[in-house]
Design a protein that fits this description.
The chain has about 280 residues and is an alpha/beta fold. It has a single domain (about 35-265), classed as TIM Barrel (Alpha-Beta Barrel). About 25% of the residues lie in helices and about 20% in strands. The chain contains 9 helices and 12 strands. The strands form 3 sheets. The protein has an 8-stranded parallel beta barrel with strand order 3-4-5-6-7-8-9-12. Strands 1-2 form a two-stranded antiparallel sheet. The chain has a two-stranded antiparallel sheet with strand order 10-11. The chain is globular and about 45 Å long. The chain starts with 8 loop residues before the first strand and ends in an 11-residue tail after the last strand.
């Protein structure tokens, strides 16, 4: 469990009239903004389950005002990457409810290969969720550039799949993207983290699965091929290359907060597996 450092609240009594006469209710008033926030995973959510029921069930330890956004699949698209698409996770009603609550949708459009034709075919999807709270996560720089030109309300996030793990890669990404998700091992590279100037444009992981120690990450490219819906296999290097396996781990957030980072990505633990999703 991620230890929450939620903003304190002041609890005040409120008198309300009711059929029973005078009833006492409690209202919580936020007295300061949260110290940090999360983008959280909707992976594995059934689209029929209302999103706030899902949040109570799976992320009940995270105060709602600390949830900046949720990432997960909406309708089918060949632009998806990161995980294999097997069905929608967030419904249109979910996205509407999230936006009304001030929470954004992050579309995981992280396929490695994107043609202009595919992009044109995805215009209806991009138009549907084009909202100032929402963002797209991209691996393909051409896709990020096209979206910036045609759908300016979206924030563009450079995916962890890009493996931006040094100042040179980061400087290049900052020219194209609004924010960058750094790979999990960067949480322990304090020299690199301290060198970053625009820490408000960086998202770090709050927890980690098998990608923390994976030496090849061949799964990501296979997910991209699988999501073209042409019958590709999903690959994994666990049986090919040795690595330490820690299962799911939680990072201590205090040292990262002390460096000035305030945006974190929170995964769900996949039951019975050594990874998150």
């Amino acid at each position: 469990m991620i230890r929450s450092l939620a903003a304190p609240v002041r609890v005040t009594p409120v008198h309300c009239a009711s059929v029973h006469g005078g009833a006492m209710y409690i209202k919580a008033e936020e007295v300061q903004k949260p110290l940090f926030n999360f983008t959280i995973s909707a992976r594995g959510k059934n689209a029929e389950l209302p999103v706030f029921a899902f949040l109570r069930r799976r992320y009940g330890n995270i105060p709602l005002n600390q949830i900046e956004s949720m990432f997960g699949f909406v309708e089918r698209s060949t632009l998806y990457g990161g995980r294999p698409f097997t069905g929608s996770e967030l419904s249109d009603n979910d996205v509407t409810d999230l936006n009304r609550a001030g929470i954004g949708l992050r579309l995981p459009l992280t396929n490695h290969e994107v043609s202009r034709e595919e992009y044109e075919g995805a215009r209806a999807l991009l138009t549907r969720y084009h909202h100032k709270l929402n963002s797209v996560i991209a691996t393909n720089d051409d896709l990020a550039t096209w979206i910036a030109e045609d759908f300016p309300l979206y924030k563009r996030d450079a995916s962890v799949i890009k493996n931006i793990n040094n100042p040179r890669k980061l400087a290049r990404a900052m020219e194209i993207y609004d924010s960058v998700v750094l790979p999990m091992p960067c949480n322990e590279d304090f020299e690199f983290l301290e060198s970053i100037e625009y820490k408000d444009r960086i998202t770090l992981f709050a927890n980690a699965g098998c990608a923390m120690t994976c030496p090849s990450r061949i799964c990501y490219a296979s997910f991209s091929e699988f999501n073209k819906f042409k019958g590709a296999d999903i690959l994994c290097s666990q049986t090919i290359k040795e690595r330490e396996s820690f299962g799911m781990i939680d990072f201590q957030l205090e040292p990262l907060l002390a460096l000035g980072f305030t945006h974190f990505k929170l995964l769900r633990s996949r039951p019975g597996a050594q990874t998150g999703f």
